[in-house]
Amino acid sequence: MHDFTRRSLLQGGTALAAAGALTGPALLDFAKAWAQASPWKAESGAKLTVMRWKRFVPAEDDAFNAMVAAFKTATGTEMNVFSESFEDVQPKASVAANTGSGLDLAWGLHTLPQLFPAQVLQLNDVADYLGKKYGGWTEAAAVTCKQGDNWLGIPVATIGGYMTYRKSSVEKAGFKDFPKDFPGFLEMCKALKKNNTPAGFPLGHASGDANAWLHWILWGHGAYTVDKDNKVIINSPETVKALEYCKALSDTFIPGVASWNDSSNNKAFLSGELHCTANGISIYVAAKDDPTKKELTEDTYHALWPVGPIGKPTELQLCVPILAFKFTKYPNAAKAFIAFMLEKENYDKWLMGARGYLTHTLNAYDNSPVWTADPKNQVFSQASKRALPASGIGTPGEKAATAIADFLVVDMFANYCTGAKDAKTAIAETERQLKRIYR
């Protein structure tokens, strides 16, 4: 394989068939029956343009495309689906929101619908329909997509990120089990470095990975960007402690993390340079699918995020919500497509196609077969339930979404850990930026 990125490494073409997914006539028969009974009837001549993030697991993409094709045939809706990188989804969705054209639906990340609440179609009916049918929504996923009582989008899934590590390296470092708290985690990383089997986490603009692990450290120390009333509180002793802990960690890392993007740790781990990082299941799946990496596959394990001084999980997981724009000419078709995506006949098999990369946000899928198909998948099943919303203890909304999209927390940590700024300056700069957003 010539390119160790998520986009090219994950080969899973046989997984969908193994999952027993509805395909061909069976899928089409289901889609036709569903369209007849659906609360939303697609408008005559409906045409939907859908933007999504680029697939990281080919079998997930296969399942998604099969759903799109079945929906198109069953409802008569023309479907134009295209993919963009994580980094490009939000800017292109923003252009559509500002111009009132170009897209009907956008499937993005974190709190995308909150960036332009006035431009999205409210989806209360879709959320109620799915929630009642499938055991309700996980808390963080629901909060991420709601403004008051209104649903601005539907949380299709969570891309769970957890500790990915070489078991042999952790054991050689003196740890029988993966550490469960911050002090133990730091000591393990120090020992890994000493053995020349280092850990590494991105300090660059990695939309998913950097935001995830740095918010985990911030929140784990009881520090937040804003309080429950959205008052900026980043300038605190707890933030200083979080920075100091992060600096001690970063001193143990493999060189180059300051410029890492979301695929860099995948490449380093799979090439044998990196022995502990935080990531979706994509690293493990890539190793499983490469016959030359059998030893690496057997040695790769997953663990929950260690818990910080606050004493409870403080995970920022990557929610991937879908929204429909208010200016779409085909609102019924848009709602029908979103609901169709999450119906059991589609969604359970879609999760299998994703091979653990996507985690459900509806409670009825707790027992999806993907979580027992491989024991190493199981930890990812908890992502939606253990997560905090991207706003931390604040109110999810356009302002919190902007802070995430602008990498304010990431840059604060990176500036301190690389020595570009001292703690006081790094915090003060972030405080000013947050106050501009939360004014």
From TrEMBL:
Keywords: Periplasm, Signal, Transport
Subcellular location: Periplasm
Domain of life of the native organism: Bacteria
Major subcellular site: periplasm
Keyword Transmembrane helix applies: no
Family to which the UniProt record says this protein belongs: Belongs to the bacterial solute-binding protein 1 family.
The name this protein goes by in its record: ABC transporter substrate-binding protein
UniProt source species: Bradyrhizobium valentinum
